[in-house]
Amino acid sequence: MNEFRTEEEQVEALKKWWSENGTSLILSVVVVAGGWLGWNTYQDNVRATGEAASAVYSQLVEKAAQPAADQTDAVKAEMISLAEQLKKDFSSTVYSQFGGLFLARFATDNGDFETAVKELQAVIAAAEEGPVKLTAQVRLANILVQLDKNDEALALIPAQPDAAYAAQFNEVKGDALFRKGDMSQAREAYVAAKTAAQEAGINTQVLQRKIDNLTSAELVAEES
Question: I want to staple 149 with a disulfide (CB 3.0 to 4.6 A). Which of 13, 24, 144, 156 is the partner?
């Protein structure tokens, strides 16, 4: 539930940015091309498209937030259809990228990692620098680790992750390094992830278990 709420907040933030900055970016082009009449028409079209996309996205979030027990095959099929609609009908908006994130999630849940990778790569290629791209990057990195493509996963991790994503990126970095057998660097990554999680008020139990398990493994290796 937290993840869906976070994604919804990201959309609202992007919509707010567009309302504050989008006008100044395209105003001069519109004036030259068709004057104020063209500008008003364009505004109406953008508003209508945004409202339609928002309605579809709201339906998708509402269904995805239902308890797993209530998500029948029919509901899952409808969620996939809504996500595909966002990608197809609203490709010029950020909602299309959120559709891709959902499709990647559904594919991962079904064990279809190949489709999930393609969806996330498409989102990364289309998204501007910011929350949407970072979300896609960290999710793709996690999938690549599961596929034992650890170097590819590490290549997706920023040298200085955004504070809001530092815990996630450092955790997946630790996972990749652990699988590569680099225990020392893996520990550093997990500790950095735990510190970032604590600062963000995120539960650190899973990270602490990874640190403890790594410590145990190192002790066994030393004794042998």
Answer: 144
Angle of CA points 26, 28, 29, to nearest 5°: 65
- pLDDT tens per residue, range 91-138: 988 999 999 999 999 999 999 999 999 999 999 999 999 999 999 999
Average pLDDT over residues 25-52: 50
What own/partner pairs with CB < 8 Å and gap ≥ 24 does 136-141 have?
136/97, 136/100, 136/101, 136/104, 137/169, 138/165, 138/168, 138/169, 138/172, 139/101, 139/104, 139/105, 139/108, 141/169, 141/172, 141/176
Contact criterion met (CB below 8 Å) for 138 and 165: yes
Q: How far apart are CA 194 and CA 170, in angstroms?
A: 9
Q: For the chain, what is the total number of helices (H) and then of strands (E)?
A: 10, 0
- DSSP conformation letters of 96-142: HHHHHHHHHHHHHHTT-HHHHHHHHHHHHHHSPTTHHHHHHHHHHHH
- At 89, is the secondary structure helix, strand, or coil? helix
Domains defined along the chain, listed by start: 1-154 (1.25.40), 157-224 (1.20.58)
> What is the distance between the alpha carbons of residues 139 and 110, in angstroms, rounded to a whole number?
15
* Inter-CA distances, 73 with 54, 62, 76, 210, Å: 24, 16, 5, 35
